[in-house]
Design a protein that fits this description.
Structural class: alpha/beta
Radius of gyration: 16 Å
Number of helices: 8
Length: 198
């Protein structure tokens, strides 16, 4: 079952993307979401947090920005990685390097993902995935819209519960579950990004 019951005000946001993808601008965006939702928590799960010094560095980085550190958690990725999505109500995607696998994992586990996209092809994975599943309204093109979408969804328990119950089915009926075609698309996209960066 999910972390929250319909009665709880507590909402857990999850960021399972690689920590090195997280810009200060993204952190400030997430901080504004937490400021709007005094009972919300933020869970970071990434391989890098297997190292205590990485946890300390991240802790100080967020504390210096003014985060309420009583509501922020850092965990290493482990073999219970997929199960941890059950503790998450809403996943927050990174920008300008969005998650690929992490977004698919979240959706597969029934967790809605808020994604920000720009003009660059490489920043639009989240939009593409969400569109394919039928959730393109969770992909937005401005920081302000990202904050509003996250806060609105966190405050709409009925919609959140409905999404948790239905996203996996929506995903299974979408072309995202056509793994071979999906992997080919993803590889093509990564090759394109790599070419753009050279």
């Amino acid at each position: 079952g999910r972390a929250h019951s319909g009665k709880s005000d507590k909402v857990v946001f999850g960021v399972f993307n690689h920590y090195y993808k997280i810009t200060d601008c993204m952190l400030q965006t997430w901080q504004k979401i937490l400021q709007r939702l005094p009972k919300a928590e933020l869970l970071f799960k990434s391989q890098v947090f297997a190292s205590l010094s990485a946890v300390e560095t991240a802790y100080w980085r967020l504390q210096k920005m003014g985060f309420d550190m009583g509501r922020v958690y850092f965990e290493p990725a482990d073999n219970k990685y997929m199960e941890r999505y059950l503790a998450v109500d809403i996943a927050l995607d990174t920008y300008p390097y969005p998650g690929g696998g992490t977004t698919c994992d979240a959706l597969y586990m029934g967790v809605p993902v808020i994604s920000l996209y720009g003009q660059r092809r490489g920043s639009r994975f989240g939009l593409d995935f969400l569109k394919t599943v039928g959730l393109e309204e969770l992909a937005v093109d401005s920081v302000q819209a990202y904050i509003e979408r996250a806060v609105d969804l966190a405050e709409d328990k009925t919609l959140l519960d409905a999404l948790h119950d239905n996203i996996r089915t929506m995903m299974q009926h979408s072309s995202l579950m056509n793994t071979k075609a999906y992997m080919e698309e993803l590889e093509k996209a990564y090759r394109q990004i790599y070419a753009e960066r050279l």
